[in-house]
Design goal:
2 domains; alpha/beta; two-stranded antiparallel sheet; about 375 residues; single chain; Nucleotidyltransferase, domain 5
């Protein structure tokens, strides 16, 4: 494996030299930073993590999925790459796909905001929002207006989740609220500011957020059983556009994520329509979306750390690394010959007397 990694890195180095016009003696870390080409070890490790995630995203019962964590070197390697030792989100493969019996409406931003501000809408209107704080805490809120005050649910979702998961969970909870109303609903309109969550609800295929898509279908079926003619619509609403319901849901979602012990925030139990509470499994297993985020962060970390280690092995202390991990746009727009000279001078490996003396091509560092 080490031999193959070295071979792959040689190919990457060659590609970086062709991109920058640098000499063969240029430090590998400088080549990686200036060309923007990721080191071989970072690319291969990321491919392993992505392969493990693909297997983990398969539905229960799939034999390929059982490879992760299986006895043997490969199974343990995949489990180590996945990193979900305390459980992860599970998916299922359905024999028959079930369509979402609801109308999906996504309009241009101004029209969507105008519709969301309307107060003459019949039936039940619900606003949802999810939040993920910088420390990783998550929560969602479901709100509706009763008279002049806002009612709803604030639910803490813990850690190892993503805002996408919270938005999907909020939509499923909003449909539950509509399905468990004791009086006639007629029309249900749900607003959310995340289009990705809306499109996730339209499909029950295996993948991130599938469990919420299945919950949504169960709640819609329950509502249809009570009111066959009920009209259900899920609409997109732009965030931070002065829509009162969206602003309230956003504030409550941040509160649910930040203060799980605050009054009215659900954590270890959820509130039923009749006022009773039901126990809730907590903490939640790590979501597949959160696993994917972790992989992206690990890839960036690997891409930065490898060149740093390579540069620590050189005596050239005058080189100033490119911290953007992308080629300089000004240099990239110039002609190849001039760009090559720039990179050679910057890395200290160019046709100067000092360099030629270092490579023993000249007896001393005199330039002329």
């Amino acid at each position: 494996m080490v031999g193959r990694l070295e071979t792959a890195q040689k190919v990457v180095n060659q590609e970086a030299r062709l991109t920058t016009g640098a000499f063969r003696t240029t430090n590998q870390g400088a080549l990686s930073l200036e060309s923007g080409i990721k080191p071989a070890v970072a690319q291969l490790d990321n491919r392993l993590r992505r392969f493990a995630l693909r297997l983990a995203s398969l539905s229960k019962g799939d034999q390929a999925r059982e490879l992760v964590g299986a006895a043997g070197a490969l199974g343990q390697r995949l489990q180590s790459a996945l990193g979900c030792w305390n459980g992860r989100e599970e998916t299922v493969l359905l024999e028959v796909a079930t369509p979402l019996e609801a109308t999906i409406t996504i309009e241009e931003e101004a029209a969507a905001a105008l519709e969301a501000r309307s107060s003459n809408r019949p039936g039940l209107t619900i606003f949802t929002d999810g939040s993920r704080l910088e420390n990783g805490a998550t929560g969602y809120a479901v709100t509706w207006k009763k008279g002049l005050s806002w009612r709803g649910h604030k639910t803490h979702m813990g850690w190892h989740q993503e805002a996408f998961d919270e938005e999907c969970a909020a939509l499923a909870r909003a449909l539950q609220v509509a399905a468990t109303r004791t009086h006639h609903v007629g029309t249900v309109t749900i607003f959310t500011d995340t289009q990705a969550a809306i499109w996730r609800m339209t499909s029950d295929d295996p993948g991130p957020g599938q469990k919420y898509a299945l919950e949504a279908r169960r709640h819609i079926a329950a509502l249809r059983a009570k009111e066959p003619q009920a009209r259900i619509e899920i609409r997109w609403c732009p965030s931070h556009q002065g829509v009162e319901g969206n602003e309230v849901a956003d504030e409550w979602a941040k509160l649910a994520a930040d203060e799980p012990d605050a009054h009215g925030v659900e954590r270890f139990s959820t509130t039923n329509p009749d006022g009773t509470t039901s126990a809730r499994k907590f903490p939640l297993p790590r979501s597949l979306a959160n696993v994917k985020r972790g992989f992206s962060e690990q890839k960036r970390s690997d891409t930065r750390s490898w060149p740093t280690r390579q540069l620590a092995r050189t005596r050239n202390r005058k080189y100033r690394p490119n911290t953007r991990l992308k080629p300089d746009t000004t240099v990239a727009k110039t002609n190849k010959r001039l760009a090559s000279r720039f990179y050679q001078v910057k890395t200290g490996h160019c046709l100067t007397g000092q360099y030629l003396a270092w490579t023993t091509c000249r007896p001393d560092a005199t330039c002329w």
